[in-house]
């Protein structure tokens, strides 16, 4: 039984990875999860300088999920290279670094710093506001997405995954723009913009007013978007959005994703990723599936 998948020439022992921002760099989870079991660890967003993130409160529970407005708080590339990379290299798993920035120059600085580091792929988070474009997210404008993808590809030593925003009119158009600019893969979906109001205080629950919604409630939207993009592009897709168990993960694979990332589920069940890997293996045995590639994109 073969659970290996290949994304942009990088082989993963199975298609299950962590979603950026929900697993740190694995340190906090390593006492619960055997990181060697994972197909890949995707790190929290890394910027060229330390980011303090947004003011609190910045997390709220909602029906079927959660809102977060963390604001990509991170200690910056220097600390990441010194502390996190050596930690991750102790394990037999692929390392994917999520890169964030406010301008193209910010992203390129991190990409260039990582060119000599032992990381396997880069995931470019294009849902950050682009200051030079009047706070329009790169991921919400096809031309901006093309521009940043092409710029990153010129500088990157590792394969490039573009993480797409679902807060767009036509997700397939964005996937095509990333592919046309040379992206090696796309990951999707990032969070859906939401809001919660405290009716007693008559004010926004999050200091940022809006936040990104994740969790089971967004899964049907995410599966639909992965399917749409799988029909539109030839590059591999990493699917995510509300995956709680193996059944959820298999839906994404059948919709056309080559791999999946588990996010909010880690907060309520730190064993989620491992359980999903075991669940996929059990399903393959029960259904007499010899190679996981038989399941990828099997619905039309």
Main attributes?
300 residues; alpha/beta; TIM Barrel; eight-stranded parallel β-sheet; four-stranded antiparallel β-sheet; 8 helices; globular
Reading side by side through the largest sheet, how are the strands ordered? Answer: 3-18-17-12-11-8-7-4
Oligomer class: single chain
DSSP summary, beta strand count: 18
Q: In the CATH scheme, what's the topology name?
A: TIM Barrel
What do these coordinates show?
The chain has a single domain, classed as Aldolase class I (TIM Barrel), CATH 3.20.20. The protein has 300 residues and is an alpha/beta fold. 30% of the residues lie in helices and 21% in strands. The chain contains 8 helices and 18 strands. The mean pLDDT is 95.
Summarize this structure briefly.
This protein is an alpha/beta fold and 300 residues long. It has helices at residues 77-88, 104-113, 142-155, 171-180, 219-232, 246-255, 265-268, 272-286; strands spanning 5-7, 10-12, 16-18, 40-42, 59-62, 65-68, 94-99, 121-125, 129-130, 136-137, 160-163, 185-188, 192-195, 197-198, 203-204, 210-214, 237-240, 259-262.
SSE topology sketch:
Elements: E1 5-7, E2 10-12, E3 16-18, E4 40-42, E5 59-62, E6 65-68, H1 77-88, E7 94-99, H2 104-113, E8 121-125, E9 129-130, E10 136-137, H3 142-155, E11 160-163, H4 171-180, E12 185-188, E13 192-195, E14 197-198, E15 203-204, E16 210-214, H5 219-232, E17 237-240, H6 246-255, E18 259-262, H7 265-268, H8 272-286
Parallel strand pairs: 3-18, 4-7, 7-8, 8-11, 11-12, 12-17, 17-18
Antiparallel strand pairs: 1-2, 5-6, 6-16, 9-10, 13-16, 14-15
